[in-house]
Amino acid sequence: MGRSAGPRWGWTDTLVVVSIVAVGVIVAGLLHTPGESATDDASAHTYATPEVEYPVEIPGCETVLAPSEGEMFMTSFSGEQSYDNPRYPWFSGPKATAMSEALIAALPGSVELEYAGPAESLLFGPIPVYNSPSELPEGITEEDFGGSTSARGMLVRESARGSLGVSVSRWDKPVPECAAGQLDRRATYPDGTIIDTLDTWAEYDGNRNLIRAATAYLPDGTQVYASVSDEDPRVPVGGDRYSGTVPLTIEELSDIARAPGLRVTAQVPVGTPPPPTPCGSGTGSSGEPLTRETVERLGQALDDAWRAHAPDGVALERSLGSLQPSEYGASSVCAEVRVTGAAGTGRLNVDIGGGHELPVAPDEYDPANAWNTTRREVLPDGSVVERDMASIVTVTRPSGTQVRISLSDVLPGSLVTVDRLQAIATAPGLELTR
After folding, report:
1. For the chain, which residues make up each domain, given as ranges?
2. What's the mean pLDDT in 188-216?
3. In 132-243, which ranges are E strands?
């Protein structure tokens, strides 16, 4: 079944926990009451944060409110989230791409963004649409916590490793008053930008998680919230989850939060494409996660193959070699690219993975295979090519590398013939190992 050609995102049926602090600041990732410590019984998990002093003076604040316990509630969003949300006209797919590029460019030169799929590569996702605003606590509306796009990724700086999360939203409210426990310092810049910063920690069962946060209120009506920690949330509890050093300083985090390209009013360069769509066939692949260098080499080989075999008058929205780790595991890569020509618009899908066995020819006398339209060919190098009339070509090489390329959302062969797909899939340079 074909899928709509509109921008999509692969997050579905996701439960969201939101903490609203009484002064109106959304503290993403710090879902706790300052100074809280929970030890219900001998078998319970423990959780603790720093004690909050009050009264206290905070640099940059004329007055400081008493600490607030805030309020926690749960809501959810489900279904495919679209970048084209009419409730937020300032945001779009190309805007998300431009913001992601600006965020990555704002990282210090000595900090590396760990290679991962789109959801973990500081790529801004769609603004969620929540299901049940009628179930929100009294006095709370979706506007109090919704309307933001978020990005996350793992940063590495020598021995320091940790997760960076950034959310951006339009802000048309007064800047919240300073409150004890929610910031260590408030800085006001000549252009009117205000940035609140916090350097804190939280302990889970005695394991201390170091956290730094910066909330920027920009003069064009943008709020940027950025937080970084020394935690790798992908590591199971009990593993080497905390590096002990946060990979960004407070000053660097503040600079990121006020990067011009993150502002809701920042212009998007003409021709900026929408973000890559999460992809993957789910056919399975085994082996170690592929390195950035390997993926770049495979992408270059695909681009060379497309240039050599692309039909006249057919254009791609982005490079066919724009490979990314699959949704189904980092040992395989994929790309989903919109293709346009005189016959219409479709999608080219590419999957490359390792650890595959050479397929065995089906028994032509078995009645179960009577309707099998797959054509099978063994190449001189031992690779097995399988293709059908639905514009799907799968090439499995003796090394275990498998390349699958298909055309969907358009009549088979109307934009790119199966012969051309096979020429691309069997092109040199598409082995996972040299």
Report:
1. 14-262, 292-425
2. 95
3. 148-157, 160-170, 185-188, 194-204, 207-218, 222-229
